[in-house]
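Lay summary. Proteins are chains of building blocks that fold into shapes, and those shapes determine what they do. In this project we predict the shape from the chain. Here is one chain we studied, written as its sequence of building blocks.
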Amino acid sequence: MSLLEILDHTGVFVFAITGALVAVRKEMDIFGFVVLALMPAVGGGTLRDIMLDVPVFWIVDNTYLFVTLAAAIVTFFAHRLIQRLSELLTWLDALGLSVFCAIGCAKALELGYGPVVAVVMGVITAVAGGIVRDVIANESPLVLHKEVYATAAFAGSVVFVVSPMPDQVSLLAAIITAFVVRGLGITFGLSLPTVKHS
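And here is the predicted shape, written in a compact code that computers can read:
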């Protein structure tokens, strides 16, 4: 397994935990944990693959489902311990976001789509699943109103498509860029301007 695949599966695991933690707040049963874990873990990639008209990645490789299921079960039984590690989870989530946007972008370019579509697919891969999770949980999607999150995925995706370097180097540059942007948002509490309701 390559380093990128390890990071990809790590991202799936962490995203699944973030989904399952929402199930903790909503006091759901184990089925609810699995459903909410699946949304951020594989939701964005699923939407991307459907839009690109290619086989959905977790159908091709069931490992992603097993990783997600494991994360849901672990969170169900150890959520108190996991919640104590919230700061670490935040940074691992940032890493997952960064890897997902780069992979989504790369997949679109490999299929022959242009840079604009590739950037959109990078952002969708990184954030769409989290939006679906929040909608299912009847919460306002975090990505739409708070923190530098989708912006980090956008920045990483743009770096990938404009980079003149070889694909592997561009992939790494995209991951680093997204992680740094998200990291700045976490560290300094940055967010995009919002409209104040009068």
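What the prediction tells us: The CA atoms of residues 32 and 99 lie 26 Å apart.
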